[in-house]
Specification:
The protein is an alpha/beta fold. Strands 1-8-7-6-5-4-3-2 form an 8-stranded parallel sheet. It contains 8 helices and 8 strands, in the order E-H-E-H-E-H-E-H-E-E-H-E-H-E-H-H. It has one domain: Aldolase class I (TIM Barrel, Alpha-Beta Barrel). Helix 2 packs parallel to helix 3. The radius of gyration is 16 Å and the shape is globular. The relative contact order is 0.18. The longest helix is centred in the last third of the chain and has 12 residues.
């Protein structure tokens, strides 16, 4: 069975890119389990962030799990470079990839954990044919592309649906959310059945990121 616990994954999208070593240090000191890497290409979403070079640089500085989230068109084009860069988990959007089944197999064949993501307007039902192949499902709880947004609370219904599907034997996967996770939403998030929560501006913009993360842990 997949190891399920309340994982916090700070997103370096909200960090100071001029001092990425310090950002990694903050994540490690906070006791977070993963580092989340939001990769945007200016096509699937308007902004452009970073790619495999950034992941390789971070890999040299930490042994934490590197969780790559590709908000890109043609995500499979980047798999080889992300494998070489040292990513541990590779999540792509179902909305961006017609051949999701094939790409999930390629990710696993390369030794990475395979994830699938859905935007707020995409129903869980589109994943029915592939849930048995994924290691994680990432539910976007804001519209992707920018940090600092408020959580769309109704998206947590997708988390509850996914948990029920998993309980019913549809697959063995982690349920993750990305967007608007902070102290005021954390209780509802964990209660819905989330296993891993991405924490962006609420972490890196806090005066004490470690304390901010601690306050978002379940009781």
């Amino acid at each position: 069975m997949t190891d399920r616990k309340s994982i916090i994954a700070p997103s370096v999208l909200a960090a100071d890119f001029s001092d990425i070593s310090r950002a990694v240090e903050l994540v490690e000191n906070a006791g977070a389990e993963w580092i989340h890497l939001d990769v945007m290409d200016g096509g699937f979403v308007p902004p452009i962030t970073f790619g495999a070079q950034m992941i390789a640089a971070i890999r040299k500085r930490t042994d934490l799990i590197l969780d790559a989230h590709l908000m890109t068109l043609n995500p499979g084009n980047h798999l080889e470079s992300f494998v070489k860069a040292g990513a541990d988990r590779f999540t792509f959007h179902i909305e961006a990839e017609v051949h999701a089944h094939r790409l999930l197999g390629e990710i696993r064949k390369n030794g990475l954990k395979a994830g699938i993501a859905i935007v707020p307007s995409t129903p869980v039902s589109v994943l029915n044919e592939i849930l048995g192949m994924v290691d994680q499902v990432l539910v976007m709880t804001v519209n992707p592309g920018w940090g600092g947004q408020s959580m769309i609370m109704q998206t947590l219904e997708k988390v509850r649906t996914l948990k029920q599907l998993r309980d019913d034997g549809a697959g063995d996967f982690l349920i993750c959310i990305d967007g608007g996770f902070a102290e005021d939403t954390s209780g509802t998030v964990w209660e819905a059945g989330v296993d891993a929560a991405v924490m962006g501006s609420a972490f890196f913009n806090a005066g004490n990121p470690g304390e901010a993360a601690r306050k978002c842990r379940p009781d």
